[in-house]
Each structure stands twice: as C-alpha cells, then as structure tokens.
Amino acid sequence: DWNSGNVIAEQVARIREQVGSARVICGLSGGVDSAVAAAIVHEAVGDQLVCVFVDHGLLRADERRQVEEDYVAATGIRLVTVDAREQFLTALAGVTDPETKRKIIGREFIRTFEQAAVDLVAEAAHDGGAIEFLVQGTLYPDIVESGGGSGTATIKSHHNVGGLPDDLQFALVEPLRTLFKDEVRAIGRELGLPEPIVARQPFPGPGLGIRIIGEVTQERLDLLREADAIVRAELTAAGLDAEIWQCPVVLLADVRSVGVQGDGRTYGHPIVLRPVSSEDAMTADWTRLPYDVLARISNRITNEVAGVNRVVLDVTSKPPGTIEWE
Ligand code: XMP
C-alpha cells in the first residue's frame, strides 16, 4: 500500500547514496513537479542543492513571489533567481508565428539556465566543490510517453529544462520517476509545500508567450496577466478548480472590436476563455462552466482590464482544437 512518507524515505536514501558529497543543481519552473523533486532532494542532501528559477517575464501574476518567498520559506532551499525579462522581450520582438515563438522561448530559456549553471559551477569550484548532478522532475507517464515514439508529426515543440550542451554534463537525479501526478501532489503536501504550488494546474513552459496571439509585448503581457488572475480567482472562488483540467486565458492581440462603455465607444481586444476537462491532455472537452460564473468573469474583465471590451468562450474539444491556441 502506497504511503507518501515511505516514498520520501526511500527516495531520500537513494539520493544520498547516488549523490554522496557532490553538489546538485535544479531548475524550478514554478510548477509542481520541479518543486517537489527539489524538495525531496533538499531533504536528502540539504545545502548541497542549489535551485535556479528563470523569470522569463511570461509568468502569471504572483508566481515568482510564490517561489521566491513561500516556497523558499517552506523548504529552506537555496534559490538563485535570474531576471531575464528584458532578454526574452527583446528576443520575441516582432515575432508572431507560434512555432517561432516557441523555439525562441525554448532557446533563450536553455541559454539562460546554462549561463546560471556555468556561474554556479564556477562558484562551487571556487570553494572546492563540484556540481555533478541535475535534478529533473520527470514523472512515470513522461517516461512511458517518450518511450513509445510512433513517428507522429510534431504538433508543437515543447520546452523543458534538460537540453544542455555536451560540455556542461551532469548526471540526472530523478526522484519522481516512478510516480503519477496525484502521488507527486501527496508528497508535496507531506513535505509542507505551499498549496498554490502543490495544487497548480498545468501551465506551459512558454507561458503567457503562447497565449498572446500576435506579437508579445510588455503591455500585452501585463494586460493578459490581469485577465488571467481574475479568471483564476473566480474559478477558485466558485470551487471549480478540481473539475477543470486547466483554463488558458488567451489575448487576441491583433483583433479589435467595437464596444460601448461609460461615455462612449471603445475599440478593444477580446479575451478568450478556454476551460477544458481532461484526463491526460491528449484529448479534452470544453468544460460546461456555470453561466453565472462566466457572467462574473466577463463583467470583471471588461470592467477591470483596460483595453479589453469583450470576453468570448472557446467551445472546441481536442481534437480538433489543441488546448493552447499556439
Ligand atoms: P496542447 O495545446 O498541445 O497542450 O493541447 C497539451 C498540454 O500541454 C501543455 N503544454 C505545454 N507544457 N511545455 C509544457 O510543459 C510546453 O511547451 C507546452 N505546450 C503546451 C498545455 O498547457 C496542455 O496542458
């Protein structure tokens, strides 16, 4: 019978044996897998672990603070944040093609993480240590999926920490390799991690960058972050988080429509709500949200988010629609 305490104890013993006195690096994404993987490793080897969090500017409201403050307070983990917001905005300037955006974000991410790793390796060497291991939050389903490659075409190029260059080689520590998502969450709770991180719904690596249809700019990111925060707050308040797999909020940045508000005419952007129900994200159905919840979200967004004068609902299943718009 499965017990999160036993799994943690087993993994802690395994990691201590694997790592010895070497040092370990881990990239945090803000998501549950990397957060739990790092927390287990920290249980095992304490300050031999250092974590890196890249703020690419495509995060949602409050995510950076949750990692830097709440997660660090809960775990005592040593964290280095890299503020790469300018770098990503510059790299994405003028780009509208979805796959090009994904490739740029993935490339900049690896570059940034790699530079942080190089700096930390040098720092460790300076005080006589060596970083030999990289933690990855790989789950059991991830392994099964990537093993069964049946030659299907790439629909979207996903990004994850991992594709590091040959001259920056680490052995992998993968404490979640035998686990499913709900088990990872149970372990996260057992380790006392903040609930917003443990309960977090899936969020794509390229973040808000692929939820702005059109060029990514600072202004558009701020606008989308506000709308997304309203949607998440209202869904949580309505007790719907467990029912929904995730709810991308999408900004149609190159579309405008006419509206009327207060003293007169508006010409603003639409926000799309994409609530989906799913078991594994391979297929999905659109979630039949209660009308009163939809009404509240629509009222709040159009009243509170400057530049948005219309809220629309995506009623497409997957297939044929993917969950994310890009
Ligand atoms: P799609 O849009 O392909 O999304 O139906 C399926 C699931 O994957 C998430 N997603 C990503 N996750 N890196 C990730 O870690 C990515 O690049 C990425 N793109 C999409 C998406 O949110 C959904 O849960």
Automatic annotation (TrEMBL):
Signal sequence residues: none
Reactions this protein catalyses: XMP + L-glutamine + ATP + H2O = GMP + L-glutamate + AMP + diphosphate + 2 H(+)
EC number per UniProt: 6.3.5.2
Binding-site positions, ATP: 29-35
Highest taxon of the lineage: Bacteria
Broad class of enzyme this protein falls into: ligase
Pathway(s) where this gene product acts: Purine metabolism; GMP biosynthesis; GMP from XMP (L-Gln route): step 1/1
Entry keyword set: ATP-binding, Glutamine amidotransferase, GMP biosynthesis, Ligase, Nucleotide-binding, Purine biosynthesis
Annotated GO MF terms: GMP synthase (glutamine-hydrolyzing) activity
Residue intervals of the GMPS ATP-PPase domain: 2-200
Quaternary structure (record): Homodimer.
Reported function: Catalyzes the synthesis of GMP from XMP.
Protein name, per record: GMP synthase [glutamine-hydrolyzing]
Source lineage: Bacteria, Bacillati, Actinomycetota, Actinomycetes, Micrococcales
Gene label: guaA
